[in-house]
Amino acid sequence: MTTTESSDAADRARRLQRVAELLAEAITPQEVLDAILTDGVKAAEARAGAIGVLTEDGENIELLAQRGYDASVMTGWETFPLSAEVPMSEVIRTGEPLFLASVAERNERYPALSEQGQDGHALVVVPLAVEGRVFGGMSLSFDRDIDFEPERREMKLTLARQAAQALARSRLYAAEQTLRERMTFLAEASELLSSSLDYNHTLSQLARLSVPGLADWCTIDIVSPQGEIERLAVAHEDPEKVRWAYELQDRYPPDPDAPTGVPHVLRSGEPEFFPTLPEELLDEAIGDDEELRRIIDELGLKSTICVPLIARGRTLGALTLIAAESHPHYTQADLALALELARRAALAVDNARLFGEAERGANAARALAYVADGVVLLDHDGRVHHWNPAAAAITGVGEDKALGCPVADVVSAWNALTSHVPLVPPGAAARPVTVPIVLEGRERWVSVSGVEFEDGTVYALQDVTEEHALEKTRSDFVATASHELRTPLAAVYGAVRTLRREDVELTSDDRAAFLEMIESEATRLAKIVDQILLAGQLDADAVELELTECDPQQVAAAVLESASVHVPESIDLDLDVDRAVSVRCDENKLRQVLVNLVDNAVKYSPQGGRVELRVRSSNGSCLIEVADEGLGIPSDERDRIFEKFYRLDPQQTQGVGGSGLGLYICRELVERMDGRLSVESEPGKGSRFTVELPLRR
Ligand code: ADP
Question: For residue 397, what is the domain's CATH number?
Fold first, then answer.
């Protein structure tokens, strides 16, 4: 070795040392590439250099960076197949370095390249490998033809080793960095997704969170309950572009049968991943719409990932990530991230929907808790699934006892109750049937209707016992009233017929008696008719009261006096007055009330006895009592006698007539005078009705 040669070698060693130092400092892949392609290339005395690495699938080589080559030479070589008959592919395939002294040598070995870079000279391509695994190659071009002697070769190989180490380390570092970023992103996304139950809002935010870190464009589509695809969110850093994307969507609505893209992912439930969006695919989607082609070209779509949002086996929507102007092509790692993100988003949507459903269910149950109708939901096996409080009240069986049990076991009368109920399909008019049943020893009238639907049967129960009783009282009244009207009418008619008979001689006393009878029966008729009219007016709230100061003792005395004229002899009338008091009331109405009570007292004392009218004051009230020693009223009827048309003995077995309206009218009138009407009684011993009116002070 000559002195020059040895000093050259020392020089190269120094330069190599320098590159090694620079590479040790470089952290990111970009810094490493920069160091290799500037200082490394220089140290190797090369004119230009390029670095290519194997793509993820191991089928292609991607040119990571180059320096010194003419851009035109590199066009079309951004990625090329590993199988290509070119130096870099071969070196990566074989792991053997390649030293070509001149273009002539290169062309001889790679005839396919003979058309390219004719003005070049020596070329070296060395494999980049770590731990025996080749992951890329470095090419170095020189500005002269060189026969690479071993020492020079060794120097290039050393550079390649250093470069490979540094590059692999920086790529690992970058990958770890990306992983860390992804974990952070996923954590942020999860937090966002669990922050609210308004999934429309959270998904829109998720889309925004994904740009630009994860994508240039992120869209989220949701399948509506009607099965339509709804674009829920479009995100891009530029809001102008987002608006434009929505417009585009309106102009070119997605074809639900499209063989690729969101519709396909939604149909198949499978992700769709295009590391590089195939030209044919775009061509197919665009067809010959020039406008659309211009738009798509402008978008510069590179790579896409579309993943389904699946929860509990149902595809709820799709998340699409698009790499366009700035984001690099997607990798398997990106797909994995997108899948994980979609899994979490789907879970959030599903949870929000489930929560919504549960809430709706709870609201429905809450509403059902307040309705007056009993609502009973049975499954196909007749087991109770819902039993609202009204159902519990009607049947006397609590929800805790009914739920989950066969209904026939919890309510023994269930079959009797429902066997005649026609079950209609949902939406059809329910056809209620009213059935009498004995529940817990009480006879109840229950109106039942039933709807049969997919999951079972729902019954609505209504306790119509009271309505039924009212109806019965009403029909009893018709019988009573017609009887009541018919009796005096028959008497009047009979009397008139007799008076007109010419064949019968009547004394003047007879005539007088008949006329008297006509008069009293007509009065009785008028009274019944008056009561019916007054009850109607009270119902319509059309009775006007004239409240004045009045003396109840006087009224009571007058009532007794006129009663004394016509009471049977077996009755003793009595008036007992405590001391002079004054009340504010409608005197006529009070009289009417007392007349009625006294009439009743007399009427319901068929065996005779004492009827006492007593006026006294107590605790700021004036109490007017009408007491008799007659039939009395059983305790369970004491409330009902004040109901309209209610009579203890509608069939009049005791032979006492009446409309059943008197006490109803009395109570209504007394209450309108701010008073109360009550009764105490001992059956067989007598009754005491008390009118209580506030004393005037
Ligand atoms: P009616 O026209 O039948 O007398 P009321 O409304 O005045 O109607 O009375 C309702 C029912 O209350 C009567 O049918 C009767 O059975 C009962 N009743 C009312 N007053 C008395 C009384 N003093 N003693 C016993 N029963 C009475």
Answer: 3.30.450.20
